[in-house]
Write a structure and sequence with these properties.
Length: 853
């Protein structure tokens, strides 16, 4: 065995300068000032800024000030929310311990992991996170959990000369490694580089809002030009028509929309955080809601990342083991009935705890200290009433031969009051040939060929179901301990155990919810195909077809795109494979959410429409590349986030329908009045008041509308589907009815010679019809008769805005500012009748629409 003395301080310092710090380089983030400015760069916001500038140039400073105030508010809200999310994410990232023990100047010192250089000798022991890539030159029972890097849930046993990799965790043993690669040259660094090269597409909501902004902008310009020219044609003065065109532009732009969308997203983010989902970017929230495919890692996401014994074969009987994870609760049954504790089963449990280097402990929940496989054996025994602490009382260890990759066995000799017994566990193909006897009927007898055939058949049956199997055996010793090479001979076969990483209890319900919501779940894992298939079948994922990484390598991308709809389970895959799968799904038009916790998930997390990383088991790289971090590593929390995302999208659509329909009314009323040669029914300050306060406050109330209980029973919207879909009632019918109602009342009063009263009446009718419309907008598809008052915030804003409007109407000073005069009871009767009619019409139309389906 070669020895390495370690580096001297001077040499380490030189190498640190040559190779750089041992850390994963991140792309330089945006400066906080740049992030803040970026909050104000959407097309719609820029359109509002332009409107404010025009208003200021025309001397309308109050209008300009109100528009800029609302623009500033929405920008600050968005910036603050994303900044808070980033801080939450950074807190998760700081949970990683950044130190390691290395040999320097002839002694052991603890240094920051970032200071490790190639040539360093690092001391490793159970519980350590490997700080760099290197090669072992001393290993004593060393096993590494490489799930973060490979997706494999079973620890990998390491021998002298084996490689160990940055970010993996040692679950047992100890050893020393010679560092070969650090920082971005490690395997983890390579994946980080791959992840950073991935271009992130814009979210559907960003595209929708940008499209709305451009559509409104073009529409405003065309309308302003058309009305200006029409006015000139009708003989109006150019200055008057220019001011009228500006009023029309103010009416057309929904000043409150950017702020209300931001508030809707921010409220949704807060609700999601209470359900253990931390969102890093506001507009990513809605994307999760329209996802129709979730690509999920198996280990730690669908499963608990805790091995559990599911089957035991002992004394010729096959036992089922209930329970999940490391909790020692669960029945041992045969054919569905509770099994008696037969001597063979008890002996298998005794071997499970005595040939075992792990410990089971309870700290809030149950956890294993040591190898997860050995932990599963401890849990099995505990379910049968055999506890390690009790089994070891009065015994002492005489000899231990640790597991190694050649023998594939572990043996421990215990001395109990002078009686020595060797307990052995290992791969069945290694243990069974060394057995000369088998335990049956409580006694050991000579093993027959038929016995071996039964054991092999049972082992094949278990492995075909994706279970990892171990054989258990023992040998009673007389006198002195035999040599290690002779100890594992003449064994008595006690039984087989079959184990697997248990699915989370709550995952089945979450998957059923996905199915009802039209969301397809795809499992992508680095595990063995049989294991992946077994978990998928147990959870009801896919149709039994499994594609491996090797098959993917042989499949051209065009063929993969053709087959992508029929394969829901992928096994033995690499990071590059995951990217190909996401690309193929995107090419088919799917909105893809990718969940995962390992470094191997990071590139696909970033490439997917929305990446969801695990907060507890997730690696720093995975969290860095994701759009959302699930704090409790629970797949059910991801589904809850999907539900929130759908609710947020519904609320945004309600808000857009409410605001845009009101703006259409304002534009139509002014446009038709000008075209018909009437006075202006609404003046600029009234329009601005309606858009920012009368409409703005109820729109915010819609933003916090409770999620519809049927939201997860609908199919997700298709990629590219118009946000306007299903809004015809509000975008066309409502504006037509209200516009003609207002113009009729306006014209009737104008003919009586009171233009100021006519404008007050038009102003009030717009306000009150929209007050009733907001209740209807709680659902765009179904009537809200019985639930119209369930959102108390809409009720509060209704009362508040009505009180404010009455104040404007009846306060002499505000009369002058807003260009209004008091209304009579007769006027109010007309307003009330129109408002009641429009609410009844909207609800009746939705009811009739539902009857037709």
């Amino acid at each position: 065995m070669r020895k390495y003395p370690g580096l001297g301080s001077a040499e380490a310092e030189r190498l640190l300068k040559e190779y750089g710090p041992n850390e994963l380089k991140e792309k330089k983030g945006e400066h906080i000032a740049v992030k803040f400015i970026r909050s104000f760069t959407s097309f719609l916001v820029l359109l509002l800024v332009a409107a404010a500038i025009v208003a200021a140039m025309l001397g309308e400073m109050l209008d300009a000030g109100m528009i800029m105030a609302i623009v500033f508010l929405q920008g600050v809200l968005g910036f603050v929310q994303e900044y808070k999310a980033e801080k939450s994410f950074e807190a998760l990232r700081r949970m990683v311990s950044p130190h390691a023990n290395v040999f320097r100047d002839g002694g052991v010192v603890s240094i920051a992991a970032r200071e490790i250089v190639p040539g360093d000798v690092v001391l490793l022991e159970a519980g350590d996170r490997v700080p760099a890539d290197g090669r072992l030159f001393e290993a004593y029972g060393l096993a590494a959990d490489e799930a973060a890097l490979t997706g494999e849930s079973v620890p990998v046993h390491k021998e002298d000369g084996d490689g160990v990799f940055m970010g993996t965790v040692l679950v047992s043993g100890k050893g020393r490694m010679l560092v070969e690669r650090t920082g971005m040259r490690t395997k983890m660094g390579e994946i980080t580089g791959m992840m950073q090269a991935v271009h992130k597409e814009r979210t559907p909501l960003e595209e929708d809002l940008e499209k709305i902004g451009k559509q409104l902008g073009m529409g405003v310009l065309v309308l302003c030009a058309f009305i200006f020219l029409a006015g000139i044609f009708h003989g109006f003065e150019p200055v008057h028509m220019f001011l009228t065109s500006v009023s029309l532009a103010v009416a057309a732009i929904p000043e409150g929309l950017p702020a209300v969308v931001t508030i809707t997203l921010a409220v949704g983010v807060q609700r999601m955080s209470r359900r253990n989902a931390i969102v890093k970017k506001l507009k990513s929230v809605e994307t999760l809601g329209c996802a129709d495919v979730i690509c999920t890692d198996k280990t730690g996401t669908l499963t608990r990342n805790e091995m559990a014994v599911r089957k035991v074969y002992a004394g010729g009987l096959a036992y089922e083991v209930g329970g999940t994870g490391y909790s020692p609760k669960g029945e041992i049954t045969i054919a569905g009935k509770k099994a008696a504790m037969a001597p063979e089963l008890k002996k298998a449990m005794e071997i499970s705890v005595l040939c075992n280097g792990a410990w089971l402990r309870q700290r809030g929940g149950w956890e294993v200290v040591g190898d997860p496989t050995e932990g599963a054996l401890l849990v099995l025994a505990a379910k049968g009433g055999v506890w390690k602490e009790e089994a070891e009382k009065g015994r002492r260890v005489e000899m231990e031969i640790p597991f190694d990759s050649e023998r594939k066995m572990m043996s421990v000799v215990w001395n109990f009051h002078g009686k020595k017994t060797a307990y052995v566990k290992g791969a069945p193909e290694m243990v069974l040939p060394r057995c000369t006897h088998i335990m049956e009927g409580g006694k050991a007898r000579r093993i027959a060929g038929s016995d071996r055939e039964r054991v092999v058949a049972e082992n094949n049956s278990l492995t075909s179901k994706g279970l990892r199997t171990l054989a258990l055996a023992y040998r009673e010793l007389d006198g002195a301990n035999p040599s290690p090479e002779n100890l594992e001979k003449n064994l008595i076969f006690a039984g087989l155990v079959g184990m697997m990483d248990s699915p989370r209890e709550e995952v089945k319900g979450a998957l059923e919810l996905c199915r009802s919501a039209g969301i397809r779940v795809i499992m992508i894992t680095g595990d063995h195909p049989l294991t992946a298939k077994a978990v998928a079948e147990e959870l009801g994922i896919g149709n039994g077809k499994v594609m491996t990484g090797e098959e993917l390598d042989r499949t051209p991308q065009e063929r993969l795109v053709e087959r992508i709809e029929e394969i829901s389970v992928y096994a033995r895959v690499s990071p590059a494979h995951k990217l190909r799968i996401v690309d193929a799904l995107n090419e088919k038009g799917h909105v893809v959410a990718m969940t995962g916790d390992g470094v191997n998930d990071a590139p696909a997390l970033k490439k997917a429409d929305i990446g969801v990383a695990m907060g507890i088991t997730g690696t720093e790289v995975a969290k860095e590349s994701a759009d959302m971090v699930v704090a409790d590593d629970n797949f059910a929390s991801i589904v809850a986030a999907v539900e929130e995302g759908r609710g947020i999208y519904d609320n945004i659509r309600k808000t857009i329908a409410f605001l845009i329909s009101g703006n259409i009314v304002e534009v139509a009323v002014i446009f038709l009045a000008v075209m018909l040669g009437m006075p202006l029914p609404l003046i600029a300050i009234q329009i601005l008041w309606i858009n920012l306060v009368t409409d703005g406050l109820p729109a915010v109330a819609l933003a916090v509308d409770p999620i519809d209980k049927d939201v997860m029973r609908k199919r997700p919207r298709e990629k590219g589907e118009s946000i306007w879909k299903g809004m015809g009632l509000y975008i066309f019918e409502y504006p037509v009815i209200v516009t003609f109602g207002i113009l009729a009342a306006f014209e009737a009063i104008v003919e009586q010679g009171d233009v100021l009263l006519a404008q007050t009446m038009a102003f009030t009718m717009v306000v009150m019809t929209e007050k009733m419309q907001v209740f209807s907008c709680r659902s765009l598809e179904k009537p809200v008769w019985r639930e119209m008052l369930k959102n108390r915030w809409i009720v509060y804003t209704f009362l508040l805005t009505v009180v404010l409007h009455l104040w404007i109407i009846y306060d002499p000073m505000l009369n002058e500012l807003f260009g209004v005069k008091p209304l009579s009871l007769e006027n109010w009767a007309v307003v009330a009748g129109m408002s009641a009619f429009i609410f009844i019409y909207l609800e009746a139309r939705k009811w009739m629409g539902m009857r037709k389906k």
